[in-house]
Amino acid sequence: MKMVQKLGFGANAVVFQVERYEHAQFSEFKTQKQYYALKVIQKSKIKCCKQSIDQIKEEIRTHRALSQCESALKLHKVYETANKLYLLLDYLDGGNLSTFLRKRDNIKESNIKSIIEQLLLGIHFMHQQNIVHRDLKLDNILLKSNKNGKYEIRIADFGLATQLKQGEHRYDKCGTPTYIAPEILRDGELTLKSDLFSLGSIMFNLCTGQYLFDLAECKKLIIINQICDLSHIPEKIKHLSQMCQDLIFKLLNTDPEQRIDCQQALNHQWF
């Protein structure tokens, strides 16, 4: 396995693009080059923190539970040494949705529809197993483009994902401001529908090129996210079709009881 380039890093890990040669079953060549993403976790940075260790175990369990989900990034192997933990993942050469959005002045509604539908299918697969991602955002959606121009996406970074147990009530706060469901910041209960608000924020991003709440200071941003005044939304999305606007409003409903769920969203008239 050969390191190609560094793709990114976080508090406890670095991600590299790597290449390796594999046996090709249906080819005249014995081996072919394949690219992967390798997440390298330093044990020294997590061994003193039980929460971090538990999160990594949960991340691996989540990947394995989603191995049959076409919209989720695939985990191929886990390697372990005395000092490091390695997660070998799919590599997508299209970057993430944040980079994709920065390179374009606008995206066709038909392309946004394809992306949102794929995300919904992936989230629905997770929710059928009571898995909540808890950090859906542009940076965690990876992209590749097929020859026919259709954008394929993969949901990535399951570091905060958790599986809700039957009868369990969770009130812990986590996620990224502008994407966090307001009930989480109001000491409300974490539910599967918390992910749907995040999806609504992503959809707003893609449709307008703007964040749902856009302030430089994170502390103020969290307060604004908690208050969740959406009175500016109608003006920002008035150029969209009526059905597209309707789905955005239903995903961004500040009342989780009234917010649309995955199955309802997939059955929406916009699709």
Sequence-ordered SSE layout with sheet pairings:
Blueprint: E1 2-9, E2 13-23, E3 31-42, H1 50-65, E4 75-80, E5 84-90, H2 97-102, H3 109-128, E6 131-132, E7 141-145, E8 151-155, E9 162-163, H4 182-185, H5 193-208, H6 218-227, H7 233-236, H8 242-251, H9 262-266
Antiparallel strand pairs: 1-2, 2-3, 3-5, 4-5, 6-9, 7-8
Helix pairs in contact: 3-5, 5-8
Structural overview:
Belongs to the protein kinase superfamily. GO terms for molecular function: ATP binding; protein serine/threonine kinase activity. The radius of gyration is 19 Å and the shape is globular. With about 270 residues, it is an alpha+beta fold. The longest helix has 20 residues, at about 110-130. The protein has helices at about 50-65, 95-100, 110-130, 180-185, 195-210, 220-225, 235, 240-250, 260-265; strands at about 1-10, 15-25, 30-40, 75-80, 85-90, 130, 140-145, 150-155, 160-165. Helix 3 (about 110-130) packs antiparallel against helix 5 (about 195-210) and helix 5 crosses helix 8 (about 240-250). The termini are far apart. It folds into two domains: about 1-90, Phosphorylase Kinase, domain 1; about 95-265, Orthogonal Bundle (Transferase(Phosphotransferase), domain 1). A hairpin with a 3-residue loop joins strand 1 (about 1-10) and strand 2. It is built from nine helices and nine strands. The protein has a five-stranded antiparallel sheet with strand order 1-2-3-5-4, covered by helices on one side. A two-stranded antiparallel sheet has the order 6-9. The chain has a two-stranded antiparallel ribbon with strand order 7-8.
